[in-house]
Amino acid sequence: MAKITVFKIKNRSGFAAVCNGHLTEGRSKEQAQDRMTKALKRTSKRK
Q: Which of 19, 24, 36, 47 has its CA 20 to 30 A from that of 5?
């Protein structure tokens, strides 16, 4: 599995996750990470 980087967004209330050219946002670190996991699953199905 690829490394997911989660960080706090400065001008917003929430967190963002970046991995393999994807960016997702969520209200908590866990939500942003879960959304990233879903995004990675969707793109792996396309290939």
A: 47
